Amino acid sequence: MSNDSLYTLEQRQQAFTQLREVKSELAARGWFPATSGNLSVRVGDFAGDRFAFAVTSSGKDKSKHTSEDYLIVDGSGRPIEATTLKPSAETLIHCEIYRLTGCGAVFHVHTVFNNIVSELYAEQGSVPFQGVELIKAFNIWEENARIEVPILPNYTDIPRIAALVEERIDKSVPGIVLRNHGIYAWGTNVFEAKRHLEAFEFLFEYAYRWKALNL
Ligand SMILES: CSCCC(=O)C(=O)COP(=O)(O)O
Ligand SMILES: [Zn+2]
């Protein structure tokens, strides 16, 4: 075990492999334009309030694979292995999502649809969806279910955004949007986080097209 038994080297390697695979798939969709976006997956279990996760390093071209793509950070977002790599500039938001939800993976992408829809609904503070089948991807099975995806302000100061996550997060909706910036989606593992991210992106495109049709 390394780093006070938080995770094993096998878990570390597995996390890097998982990030590499999902990064490839999301990059193929064009979901990381201009080095935007970041991904993380927890390594090992929570030990009380301590945990660690693998996160993409900051400013990289996420459509490429290099030996400098990922590093391990602690629950405060600080690297816990000797490295010259910088964790994603948005790591503190990942930290808050892990801390508040106990999830296993967090994915963040910038897309045209999530940006436009966040702007369309900014004054309301959340994006509402009702009765769309893909809401079931969030394990919400009630008839004609309604959800609201919280929209947070896009401050330049990331700690200021992170400080808002706790009051805005809805535990039954595994995503938050930053206004005119992008979505964070999470899940118990990589498979579930990707399913949630895909469902949110479907819903944002749906919302955009629906609004456009009704102009
Ligand atoms: C070039 S996009 C601006 C930063 C951002 O929003 C993002 O998602 C990527 O930041 P990172 O530090 O994770 O590369
Ligand atoms: Zn971003």
Automatic annotation (TrEMBL):
Zn(2+) binds at residues 108, 110. Its EC number is 4.2.1.109. It is an enzyme of class 4 (lyase). Residues 17-208 form the Class II aldolase/adducin N-terminal domain. Pfam families: Aldolase_II. SUPFAM superfamilies: AraD/HMP-PK domain-like (SSF53639). Binds 1 zinc ion per subunit. Gene3D superfamilies: Class II aldolase/adducin N-terminal domain. Pathway: Amino-acid biosynthesis; L-methionine biosynthesis via salvage pathway; L-methionine from S-methyl-5-thio-alpha-D-ribose 1-phosphate: step 2/6. Keywords: Amino-acid biosynthesis, Lyase, Metal-binding, Methionine biosynthesis, Zinc. It catalyses: 5-(methylsulfanyl)-D-ribulose 1-phosphate = 5-methylsulfanyl-2,3-dioxopentyl phosphate + H2O. GO terms for molecular function: methylthioribulose 1-phosphate dehydratase activity. InterPro entries: Aldolase_II/adducin_N, Aldolase_II/adducin_N_sf, MethylthioRu-1-P_deHdtase_MtnB. Its cofactor is Zn(2+). Catalyzes the dehydration of methylthioribulose-1-phosphate (MTRu-1-P) into 2,3-diketo-5-methylthiopentyl-1-phosphate (DK-MTP-1-P). NCBIfam families: PRK06754.1 (NF005244), salvage_mtnB (TIGR03328). Belongs to the aldolase class II family. MtnB subfamily. This is Methylthioribulose-1-phosphate dehydratase. It comes from Paenibacillus hodogayensis. The gene is mtnB.
